[in-house]
Amino acid sequence: MKMKISKRRIGILIIFVIFILLLESISIATYQNAIQGEAERNSVEERIEESLEKNTTELTAEEQETLNLINQYRKKMGLSELKPFFELQEVSKLKAEDLVENEYFSHTSPNLGTPFEMLQQNGIDYIIAGENLAGNVSPEKAVEAWINSPSHRDNILEGKFQYTGISVVESPIYGKVFVQLFI
């Protein structure tokens, strides 16, 4: 009996791996609005601008490629480019590493909470925020999967989003994990 259960679990794992390989990606998206008054909105924008002046954001080649592909798509659709934001970059890296280390794939981390809780815990104010996740083999495939998914595309094309943080981390399960935060 134990042998059958073990074979069944192996079979399920094999089917899952084949599904992932055929699908070539897995991705999910979420967003949240924070309703704020005009004075608070101006204060948030001022704090972001101050942080941009103090900190430079350094992206890896794959992170920069992902950002370039997303910005090309936004420009093609008549939107402004997203600017990399140091604090968002740091939070996206925390999330990507957490996804890989703890072997889950969800917007809600068992350790770090939701993306919105993570932003709050890291002192990042926002008017509107979102997160895209993908497990894929390359920036081109990840962005293609996001564009082909209505909820991810909605995040990419949200005109209120001005800033982003993108992290790409190697994953034994997905090849690479892509985390993009938007504010």
Rg, alpha carbons? 18 Å
Along the chain, the helix and strand elements come as HEHHEHHEHHEE
Helix/strand-derived class? alpha+beta
Tally of helical segments: 7
Biggest sheet character: 5 strands, mixed
Gap between N and C termini: 53 Å
Mean pLDDT, to the nearest integer, reads 84
In total, the number of strands is: 5
Strand content: 15-25%
Would you give an account of this structure?
This protein is globular. With 183 residues, it is of the alpha+beta class. The longest helix has 22 residues, at 2-23. It contains seven helices and five strands; from the N terminus they run H-E-H-H-E-H-H-E-H-H-E-E. Helices cover 51% and strands 20% of the residues. A five-stranded mixed β-sheet has the order 1-3-5-4-2, sandwiched between helices. It has helices at 2-23, 38-54, 61-76, 86-101, 115-121, 139-147, 150-156; strands spanning 26-33, 83-84, 128-136, 163-171, 175-182.
What order do the helices and strands come in, and which of them pair?
Layout: H1 2-23, E1 26-33, H2 38-54, H3 61-76, E2 83-84, H4 86-101, H5 115-121, E3 128-136, H6 139-147, H7 150-156, E4 163-171, E5 175-182
Parallel strand pairs: 2-4
Antiparallel strand pairs: 1-3, 3-5, 4-5
Helix pairs in contact: 3-6
Label this structure with key terms:
183 residues, alpha+beta, five-stranded mixed beta sheet, 7 helices, 5 strands, globular
